[in-house]
Amino acid sequence: MHWYPLQAVLAVLYIVGLLVVGILAGRKKHDSNQFLNATGSLPFWLCATACIASNCGSLDVIAMMALGAQYGMLACHFYWIGAVPALIVLGFWLIPAYARGHYPTVLDFIGSYCGARTRLVVTVSMALMMLLLSGVCLCAAAQAIATWLGWSFLKAVLLTIVVVSFYTALGGFRATIYGELIHFAVVLAAVVPLLFFVMRDFGGFGKFLASVPANRMHAWQSLPIVSPHAVMDRLGLIVGLGFVLSFGYWSTDFVQMQRALAVRDKDRVARIPLTVAAAKTVFAFFIVLPGVAAPLVLAQRANANYNATLPLLMQHYYSPAWLALGFLGLTASLVSTFANNVAGFTSACVQGIYQHWIRPSLPDAHYVAASRLCNLAAIALSIGSAYLALHYLSLMEYIQLILSTFNAPLFALVAIAALAPELAAAGSFGGFLIGVAAALLHQALVRTGVLHYGSQMSANFYCAIASFSLSVLGVWSIAALRKTEHTEHHSRVRVRLHLSRATVLWAIVVFGVCAFLNGLVW
């Protein structure tokens, strides 16, 4: 790609903007929790926008557009059934409980309900999961940079980690939040026009529908009820994605919880997930429909590598200057997602392991310094994780593989702690280990060909179902064996719904629109 002076200026301004964000965010005096989580210190609009940005960034856009090219409107399930119901329940149930209980992270909730030993093993699991996810983001960002600049993969990795190291080490989580606003603005300018260009080429939405094969415009009709050997089935989609993976991701994801709990006004915390649900309901059309059209627009080029659908569409429609802006948008958002997982890894390691188990009761300045060092260590470890991610051709399938292994058993603990705290206190440690072990065994059997599915995505859905179910069964069985024992956690009460007229009305509207759209493409 040839860079013109204007494009080079835009790139320099973007990088300088990130560095300035890190410096300004780091100037404000804050303790270790503010550096790591910024709990209760940021305005609602900023946290809501950051949540939307981290969930509608370029990693999602690239993966969703690839799924649209591969599966058609089935891709919308990852934004609709895979997000909206869970976000609504989260807003009424768990997020208010976290805020009212003054739990700055999910780890504090787990520690309070399940005990210190369970918290430790969950912390290690979450840190490993975020390290793998950060490798996915670093890999995607480096590949984009290498493609556009003609660099080697290693050079692109080094550029990415230098920028992220600087602004996250200086400003911590606060810098990550403000940086996301920059990334999201650029990625919107780069991606949203694609839908309008596609519709213009087809002569309007009606002619677009007439041109696309009918089976690619249906989200439910082509799915069998139960068929693991199909590409997807309704059981795996509804239970695996819509319940276990979706609820597990949104109720336990460290990165998302950090943003929601950073809201200054606790009465508005519940509105964060509802705002994200509304955004994902609408945004799905902007990123899936161009993917659905890609095989017709790009002919054979779209079928060679589905993950290249978005870059190919941008090359097809955009002028050189706009193409440079699109490149900056994609790279910016990928770098942002990478920084999010680095910040989450640091918070988990410092607060969940170092401060709690290794060096407790030290001055707060010590933990801030340790957090900066942990940031750098996380970024260094992500290099190896990025090379691991290079072995997978589908970003979304690899992400769901990671989540089905680590998030599904964690969601089992959160659900049991919220509904039956006495069971969580007695059996959570063993139940969690059983779920993780079952997921690892399942994935190993799939990789070795012992278990066969119609796709890796279907295998991920069924892995999540098995891991969650065995975790619940393990917790219940262990608690039954230890029913005569008493622990200090039995006094914990069930998590109750937190309803208000405004949030209920908002939830009804969002769910109604989502249901209508599902019916529209049934």
UniProtKB/TrEMBL annotation:
Pfam families: SSF (PF00474). One of its GO terms (molecular function) is D-glucose:sodium symporter activity. Keywords: Membrane, Transmembrane, Transmembrane helix. The keyword Iron does not apply. It comes from the Bacteria. The lineage of its organism: Bacteria, Pseudomonadati, Acidobacteriota, Terriglobia, Terriglobales. InterPro entries: Na/Glc_symporter_sf, Na/solute_symporter. The chain crosses the membrane at residues 6-24, 44-66, 78-99, 120-145, 151-169, 181-199, 235-252, 272-297, 317-338, 373-392, 398-420, 432-453, 459-481, 502-521. This is Na+/galactose cotransporter.
